[in-house]
Each structure stands twice: as structure tokens, then as C-alpha cells.
Write a structure and sequence with these properties.
This protein has a domain at about 85-205. Helix content is about 30%, strand content about 20%. The chain has helices at about 20-25, 30-45, 50-55, 65-70, 155-160, 175-180, 185-205, 220-235, 240-245; strands at about 85-90, 95-105, 105-110, 115-125, 130-135, 145-150, 170-175. A 7-stranded antiparallel sheet has the order 1-2-3-4-5-6-7. Strand 3 and strand 4 (about 115-125) form a beta hairpin. The radius of gyration is 58 Å and the shape is extended.
Length: about 260
């Protein structure tokens, strides 16, 4: 019995199945896409500075250099010079103002409610003290007084060593109508009296004497006369015994051999 072997069955070829290593590999971006993405990221994250591209000559000055440079400010306007005057202004708590005017070295004047007052300065030559008496509207009868306290020479020396320059004084108002006035003139009298006393003590202790004007230097009369006579004697001929025996003098016969 003979067996006949037929043609082999047809075989279907399939591509090999992916291996486990190929299936678990992560997805990779193409090289061209990765390079373009990195270029874009670097473009937006780091912008080139225009300051570095400019030359030092064309670079705009920074605020640091402006702050370090000295600022140019306008010169302050000069203050007006304060000229000393003979008026002292007093201002009270009720906004009242009183101007005490110094008149020479003998009186201090002020006005209050339409009336004029004056502190007159009086000097006692026997004791060497200064007192003040207040007169009103030019009348002779004073309405207030400031009189220094009488002190012994030892008290004066002790006060001088202690640096005192205002003597202790008594002040009183002799007119009862002034004390009872509703215009508060008593307060003004006390304030102006203290100002007059202190100002007078300041002027007496620290008053700067004005320097005397320098007179042009004139030559002394005796010196001028002496210099004039010296010049005259120098240019005028002087009589001398030598001239009397001189051979050049005419009027005498001289024998010549």
C-alpha cells in the first residue's frame, strides 16, 4: 500500500508580537519637536537685555548714577537782616498786645485802652541805685513804683560773686483805682515794669560802646615847622670862615708871582 503525501499546507506569516520591553518603553517626542520646544522656552524665560547690547556711550544713565551725583538745587533766598529796634512787644493770654517803646535812657512808654503810660527812670546818686515810677497821661503823680532793696556792701559783693545782675526790688501800685479797674491794667503795669527793669539792667551791664570814628592823621605843627626849616637850611647858602679866606672871592688883591 502506497501512501501519497500531498503538498504541505499553506503557512500564514504574521509579524512578531512586540516584546515586553518594547511595550513598556515610554513615549518619546521626536528630536525636532524637542529642540523647538527648548528654544521657545529659553526665548520666553530669558529675554536679552537691551542695556547690555547698547554701547557705554549710548547707554541711558541709571538712577543710581543720578542719585550719586550732587543734586542741583536752587540757592535759598537770603533772610532779611534783623535790625534792632527800641520796641518790645508783649502778648498776653487773652491775645492782647502791648508795645513797650524805649525813649532814650530815661523812660519806657506804652498805651492801654486809649491811655498813655510811661515808666520814668530815676537815679539816686547818693546810694547809686536806679528806680522806676509810672505816670499816666503825662501827670506828675505816679501810680506805680519799682524801688530796689537797700543792701549792705557785703550783700552787694556776694550778689556780684554769685553772678546776679538784677537787684532785688519792691513793686507796688499806689493808685487803688488801677487795682480795681476792669481793664486788667494792673497786669499790664506789672508786665511792663518787669520789662523796663530787665532791659535797663541789660543795657547797663552789657551795653557795647560804639567805637569812636577814626580821625585822619594830621602832622604835628612842630614837626611840620621843623621839616620846613630843615629843607630851607639845606638849600640856602651858609656863611663859613672858609669862604671868607677863599681865593675866588672878589674884592681882594692877590699877588701873583
Amino acid at each position: 500500500m502506497s501512501s501519497r503525501r500531498g503538498p504541505p499546507p499553506a503557512m500564514t506569516l504574521f509579524p512578531p508580537a512586540p516584546s515586553s520591553s518594547t511595550a513598556s518603553a515610554p513615549f518619546r517626542r521626536p528630536a525636532s519637536s524637542a529642540s523647538s520646544a527648548s528654544s521657545a522656552a529659553s526665548l520666553f524665560s530669558r529675554r536679552p537685555s537691551t542695556r547690555g547690547s547698547l554701547s557705554p556711550e549710548r547707554r541711558r544713565p541709571s538712577t543710581d548714577s543720578a542719585a550719586s551725583s550732587p543734586s542741583v538745587t536752587a540757592a535759598p533766598s537770603p533772610r532779611p537782616l534783623l535790625v534792632p529796634t527800641d520796641t518790645i512787644k508783649l502778648e498776653f493770654s487773652n491775645y492782647a498786645r502791648v508795645h513797650v517803646r524805649r525813649r532814650g535812657d530815661k523812660r519806657y512808654e506804652f498805651d492801654w485802652w486809649g491811655r498813655s503810660y510811661a515808666w520814668k527812670r530815676a537815679v539816686d546818686k547818693t546810694l547809686g541805685t536806679v528806680s522806676f515810677h509810672l505816670v499816666r497821661d503825662g501827670h506828675r503823680d505816679p501810680v506805680a513804683h519799682i524801688v530796689p532793696e537797700v543792701r549792705s556792701p557785703n550783700q552787694l559783693d556776694a550778689e556780684d560773686r554769685a553772678g546776679g545782675w538784677i537787684p532785688p526790688c519792691y513793686m507796688w501800685i499806689s493808685d487803688p483805682a488801677v487795682v480795681e479797674a476792669v481793664t486788667d491794667v494792673a497786669d499790664v503795669i506789672v508786665a511792663t515794669g518787669l520789662v523796663a527793669l530787665v532791659d535797663d539792667c541789660i543795657r547797663d551791664r552789657w551795653q557795647v560802646k560804639k567805637p569812636a570814628p577814626l580821625a585822619p592823621v594830621r602832622p604835628h605843627v612842630a614837626d611840620a615847622a621843623r621839616s620846613t626849616s630843615a629843607v630851607r637850611d639845606f638849600f640856602s647858602p651858609r656863611p663859613s670862615t672858609q669862604h671868607s679866606h677863599s681865593l675866588l672871592r672878589t674884592g681882594r688883591a692877590v699877588a701873583v708871582y
